[in-house]
Amino acid sequence: TALISDSQLKTNVSDIDSALEKVTRLRGVSYEWNMSPLPDPGSMSGTQLGFLAQEVDTVIPEVVRKDSITGMKSVDYSRMVPVLAEAVKELNAKVSNNADLASSVDSLRQ
């Protein structure tokens, strides 16, 4: 599903800081649903992969929603993509810096 993302509709735009640190604090888990509190479990059987909303809330609260009726929390996984993209860029910069450093060390050894 495509979402409107036009810059004309956005104000106070800023970079996502410390994305890699945030991603490293997330704990990916495998789990099975506790079906008893769910009104309509649908096709949510079997082992699933994801995060625990309460844990994500402590790291990236912007992607967590709390249902006003049940009080249950949910993660909007699509809103995590920008954080993941920035984390990849931060990691790539570290790898590039390490490669440059290794090249410099090799040059000094010769």
For the structure shown, list the relevant keywords:
110 residues; alpha+beta; two-stranded antiparallel sheet; 11% strand
Uncertain parts: none
Rounded to an integer, what's the Rg over CA atoms?
20 Å
Question: Alpha-carbon distance between the termini?
Answer: 55 Å
Largest sheet: 2 strands, antiparallel
Whole-number mean pLDDT = 90
Oligomer: single chain
Q: Helices and strands: which structural class?
A: alpha+beta
Give, in spatial order, the strands making up the sheet with the most strands: 1-2
Approximate strand percentage: 5-15%
Description:
The structure is a single chain. This protein has 3 helices and 4 strands, in the order αββαββα. The chain has helices at residues 19-25, 53-59, 81-109; strands at 29-31, 48-50, 64-66, 73-75. The strands form 2 sheets. The chain has a two-stranded antiparallel ribbon with strand order 1-2. Strands 3-4 form a two-stranded antiparallel sheet. Helix 1 (19-25) crosses helix 3 (81-109). The mean pLDDT is 90.
